[in-house]
Amino acid sequence: MNLGNWLYRQAMANPRRPALFLGKDMIEDYGGFHDRAARLAQWFLDQGVSPGDRVAIFMKNCPDYLIVQYAAWYAGAVVVPINAKLHGREAAFIIRDAGASLTMTDWDLGDVLAGAEIPGRIVSVGGAEYGRGLQARPLATPVARRADDLAWLFYTSGTTGRPKGVMISNRMLIAMSLAYVTDVDAVTREDSVIYAAPMSHGAGLYNMIHVLMGARHVCPLSAGFDAAEIFDLAGHFERAQMFAAPTMVKRMTDTARETGATGRGLRTVVYAGGPMYNADIIAAVRQFGPVFVQVYGQGECPMGITALSRQDVTDRSSANWQQRLASVGRAQAPVEVQIGDSRGRPLPPGEHGEIMVRGDVVMPGYWRNPEATRKTLVDGWLMTGDMGFIDAQGYVTLQDRSKDLIISGGSNVYPREVEEILLTHEQVEEVSVVGQADPEWGEIVVAFVVGKACWADLDRLCTENIARFKRPRRYVRLRELPKNNYGKILKTDLRARLKHEADAD
Q1: Which of 18, 45, 210, 333 pairs with 317 at a CA distance of 20 to 30 A?
Q2: What is the DSSP string of 316-330?
C-alpha cells in the first residue's frame, strides 16, 4: 500500500476541494495538489530515482513541502525528512547515511549544504530544475508498494550521539494515522491543520490523515511558530488543528495572557515531544478551554504509544484528576504497552520500570544498524528507555528517561517529580533537574532554573511537597535552558556543564 494513494483518491473524488494554503491564501486545491505531485514524481523517475530510493527533504514549512513528499511517495521512494534548523554538517550526515539519491531543499538551505560531501543531486524548490519537474507529464498512478516497504526514514534528534535512522513503513504510518481518529481526534473536510512545528517531525506526520479526510493544510507565512500568527490563522479558518511541543503551548498561553487573545478557532492542539508539566497545561486549559489532547510516542513508534484524551486533560471533578493529568494517557489502538523490569519481565500495575511497546506502529529496526536494533527491539518489544508505571485503569505515567534517573544515597530520584513541584512557583518559568556526581552521595540533585524565584522559597516549596532526599542540593540560575531543534531540553548539555565545573576545580 503506497500512502500516496490517499492523495490520489481524494483528488479523484474531490478535485476542487481546497487543499494547500500559504497563510490565508489558497495555493492549490486537491486536484492541483495531485497534479503537481504526479508531474514531479514522473520527473523523479526520469532522473533515475527508483522505487525504494531515498529522497531527502531539507526544507522549511511551505506548501511545496507536501508536494515534494507526495511526489516521492508517488514515485515509490522513501522520504527522509530533515529538520530545517539543523546545521549543514548535521544535515549532510543524514543525507550521506541515508544514501539519498536526491535532496530537495529551499534556496537558502541549499546554500547551507554548499561544500558538503553529499551523494546524489541537490535540487532547490523554486529553481529552474524544479520548474521543469512540474512541467513533466504526470505519472498516471502511484507506484505500487507493499505495506512493509519503507516510506519514511526518520533520524533521531541525536542528543546523546550520532542520530540513528528509524525505518518507518507504510504499514506503520497507516496504523498511526488511523489511530489518530480513534484515539486522538476526529478529522473532517471542514478542518484545517496548521503546520507551526517542523514538518520533518510530529506536525508533518499528521498530514496523512488530514489528506485522507480532505482537510485544509495551512503553512504560516513565517514558516514556523509565532503565537500571534497562529491565533490569527485559527480565527480565519475557524476549525483549526495543530501539533505543538509543550514549549509552544506555554508560549501560546503567555502570549494570550499578554494580548487578550482567546484562541478563537482553535479546535484541537495535540501536544507531545517533551514533558508537559501540570502547571503549564492547567494554565493553558484555563486560557483556551477544552482543546488539548496529549500523545506520547518516539521516533521508533511515531506518535503512537499512548494518548490522553481531551476529556482527561480537561477533567477537574474526579478525585485523582491531577495524577491522571500528569500521565500520558492510555495505549493507542494499534499497540500493546507494558512495564518491564531490568530484564524485560512484565510488572504489575503500579510498579515502576521501563515502558515497553509492541504493535503495528513499532519500527522494524534502525537503518543499517543491527547492533542498535538488537539492543532496542527485544523479543518483539520496543524498549523505549523511558521509565514509568501503569495504574489499574491503564493510564501510563512517564517519569523520566532511564538515563536521566538520579540515584542519590541509594534512593531513586525522578527529575520530573522535582520539576513539577518547582514549576508551581509563580516566578519559575522553566526548570530542568539533573544529577551531579558526588563522592559521598553518588549523585546529588541539581536544579537549573529560569526565573526570579529565590532559592530559599524553592527549597521551602520542596520541603513541603516531596521527600527530603529528593530536594535539590544546588540551584543554578540560567537565562534560558539549552534545547535542540525540536524544543527538547538538552540535559546532556547541563550534565556536561556540571562535569566541566567539577574538572576545573
Answers
A1: 333
A2: -SSTTHHHHHTS--E
pTM: 0.86
CB 196 within 8 A of CB 248: yes
Please report the pLDDT score of residue 487 as a whole number. Answer: 76
- What's the chain's length in residues? 505
8 Å CB contact between 162 and 210? no
- Cβ–Cβ < 8 Å for 95, 59: no
b/e sequence 211-228, b meaning 16+ C-beta within 10 Å:
bbbbbbbbbbeebbbbbe
Architecture of the domain defined by 405-504: 2-Layer Sandwich (3.30)
Cβ-contact 450, 430 below 8 angstroms: yes
Q: How far is CA 404 from CA 341, 401, 413, 445, in A?
A: 17, 5, 9, 11
**Closest by Cα among 290, 379, 308, 392 to 350:** 392
Rounded Cα distance, 4 and 77, in Å: 11
In tens, the pLDDT along 158-205 reads: 544 578 999 999 999 999 999 999 999 999 999 999 999 999 988 999
- Can you name the residues that pair with 7 across neighbouring β-strands? none
Domain ranges in the chain are 405-504
Contact 20, 28 (CB under 8 A): yes
